[in-house]
Design a protein that fits this description.
It contains 9 helices and no strands. The protein is mostly helical.
Length: 158
């Protein structure tokens, strides 16, 4: 007996379109996420592209809307910096110009304020007492969150 449970999908194009539309209605998706899901459902390449075209035409799938929602969520909720957000969008194969446009939707004041808030919060919990090591740990933390080193260094120096 096969120990791995293999899911068998046998959707016709109409069913797959309906399921994909519901999946897109639940949450914004990138074209690549939908494409991957359709291939997971074992759809043929021609059908996948037809379904994606239909979803775009019916406005279930909108790459720009997805990019803006992704940027907004990752910045406001997860407190990610632009570097990490950009990497995430690239992994989802969002076009470069759309990534730039979506990242520009983050207000500079909000961005700097978020860095400041994260820094203050981390300073309260950081146990390192040696000033140079402490500053390095704070810089590393904020850089891992996707914030630019020069911005972080500017705030750390204040």
């Amino acid at each position: 007996m096969n120990s791995e449970k293999e899911k068998k999908y046998n959707y016709d194009k109409k069913t797959a379109l309906h399921k994909a539309a519901n999946w897109c209605a639940y949450q914004e998706r990138s074209q690549q996420e939908v494409r991957d899901k359709l291939y997971e459902w074992q759809m043929k390449t021609a059908e996948v592209e037809e379904i994606i075209s239909s979803l775009i035409a019916e406005n279930f799938l909108n790459e720009e809307r997805f990019a803006f929602a992704y940027v907004s969520g990752k910045f406001k909720i997860k407190k990610w910096g632009k570097i990490k957000i950009k990497q995430g969008l690239k992994l989802k194969r969002v076009p470069e110009q759309m990534i730039k446009k979506a990242l520009n939707s983050i207000a500079d004041d909000d961005y700097l304020e978020t860095i400041q808030q994260l820094l203050e919060k981390k300073q309260r919990t950081e146990k390192e007492s040696h000033p140079v090591k402490r500053q390095f740990k704070l810089l590393t933390y904020l850089h891992s969150k996707g914030f630019e080193k020069d911005l972080v260094m500017g705030i750390l120096k204040k």
